[in-house]
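Q: Give me the 3D complex with MTE.
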Amino acid sequence: MTAVDWREIRRHLIDRNASPTDLARFDAFAARRGFLGASGAALLAMFGGDVALKGLFGRGMIPVAMAEDEPVFEVSGKPGMIVHVKHPLSGEFAPHLLDDEVTPTERHYVRNNGSIPERAEAGDLTDWKFTIDGEVENPLSLSFEDLGQMPSVTMPLVIECAGNGRAFFDPPVRGNPWQHGAIACSAWTGVRLRDLLQRAKLKSTAKYTAHYGEDQPLGLAEQFSRGIPIDKAMEEHTLVAYAMNGKPLSALNGFPARLVVPGWVGSCSQKWLTRIWVRDRAHDSQKMTGYSYRMPKTPQTPGSRPKKSEMEVITAVKVKSMITRPTAMTKADIDKPLNIAGHAWAGDQQVSKVLISIDYGVNWQEASLKPPPNRYAWARFETTITPQRRGYHEVWARAFDDAGDAQPFRQPWNPKGYLGNVIHRVPVVVG
Ligand SMILES: Nc1nc2c(c(=O)[nH]1)N[C@H]1C(S)=C(S)[C@@H](COP(=O)(O)O)O[C@H]1N2
Ligand SMILES: [Mo]
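A: Here is the predicted complex, encoded as structure tokens.
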């Protein structure tokens, strides 16, 4: 067992974007338990099965490594990923690791609902077919080469999980405790779904798509399947992608082909895609009904359970921003400019401005906003602020969109913690 001392664990928590409150709790806990002198196996033993510690880091903060008595748990191809669940695999990256305008494949988050298909792990295209059937005149069955021969486009596009930000709902909700990192903007290459649907000739009865992939569900769940209205399917940025950042898709992100439905919740972007069934009504799979990917039409009392009839399918994500510079707990110098940067996005809308504050929202400064390469890529913002007081500060970012919406400071609660977009706060210590 590798020696791990508490300082390393503390650093690890900072890397994992632990909130100042979580860090303070950790410090108090460590002091109380006499961790400060301990190291190595003794410390791991103290961590092992410690219920108090589990409670302390109930938001996915505790390194899986320690929860499972392994020194480090790294997912092949995704170094540094914060793993929330191993089976089915779900993991995200801390904001400072998502600074690139185009997210490298190795830092694209992973959200699996079931197994990873063997074909994806082996990179095997044998007998792979992609079909479009249902409300079409001319059903398609395409090989990987057929797909590759159609006109293609390459675009950076945002995919964000509906549950990104779930960890910040209060009272807490069940599900992966995503913080800020269940989002990415990689460069996707593929065929516009519109071109495929035109080739298949939609009937006038075509209303909705239903997506199917090669992954198998775990337990009693139905196979993961979601769908989108035909208008969104025909939108020019909706792709059947077969390359990511110039290479074949990674096994974890959907090899050999996936949907990319930018602007809408990530679950629309079916991975390991094999079939699109065009339907004459809204898709009614398990993941389209009940409480899955649905939110109450009106804000609910926190902790309540709305009736199923109150729920509606969620579609576009909301205006939001993420601070990628500075890193949490950076030590900044008084009277020296502090560089602040990050990304902003707004679902089907466009970001109009991003405001920054380092004094708890008393004063705001507008960041410069770089126009994104297309309306579904995130926009880079940047500014500098010169701190004039010593001590603990928080950098806050607040994005606005062109439809008049903005990120809230507190937001209405919903039973599954979807569409969390409260402002991002990053602690810095000025000395
Ligand atoms: N076949 C299949 N597609 C899927 C999923 C899945 O479990 N199976 N998860 C969805 C969810 S909930 C999200 S947020 C995105 C995540 O994509 P990524 O793992 O490439 O980041 O894929 C979506 N597509
Ligand atoms: Mo998701």
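A quick observation: The longest strand covers residues 391-401.
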